[in-house]
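Sample 1 of the test manifest.
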Amino acid sequence: MADPMRIRAQLAGDKATVRVLMAHEMETGQRKDSSGKTIPAWFIQEVTAAHNGKQVMSAEWGPAVSKNPFLQFNVKGAKAGDKISVTWKDNKGDTRTDEATVS
Amino acid sequence: MQARRKFLSDSIKVAGLLATVGLLPQAAQAAWSAAAFEAKTMADLMKSLGGGVPAESKDVTITGPDIAENGAVVPVSVATTLPGVKRLMVLVEKNPNILSAAFDVTDSVEPSFATRVKMGQSSNVYAVAMMADGRVLFAQKEVKVTLGGCGG
């Protein structure tokens, strides 16, 4: 199981600024290890975000996103106490969901 | 008989079109668009996504550093002020595959995203916005990299 994400959702007017830091290797599949073998690609492919259970954003990522990816986006119509959840899925089928409260 | 056969083949074509055009968000969720992420040039990318010819626009913005010391972590953000944007993408021209990330925008989220990407060498980075009306708009910025983030 992957490490938890760090999510902060800060209210600014009627929208929430959500910052997410995920823990993931994001291996491109182009690097080689010390014995010259290619390290297989391992990266997050899909990211979705939901506001109080309703999906508001989805993204598709390639291996060019940095290791331990950072993502920031703004959710409209958010209020203090609302739940923002973020889910990612990598190319090995591993998935993780974490939730934060808007404050 | 001939007419019926034509009707059948036409309806199959229409279903195919619907699957690629009308139902794009669902399709994108169901399967990662491998073809788009394998594209080497903007033209290839547009072909795989079914977009038109991209036009430069002032209403799309890309922000990033002028010089990135570490190509493994280059902070970039893409945004647009235009309504009716369907998808925002981050492209790095000289990476092995140009598409880095694609964000599907809904009404409940602002068309503005920030993330960090890897860059193998100094290159132009693009923000590409695919609009609901089929237009494709982009903005570009040159980022110089002193230490590459790929290979090694």
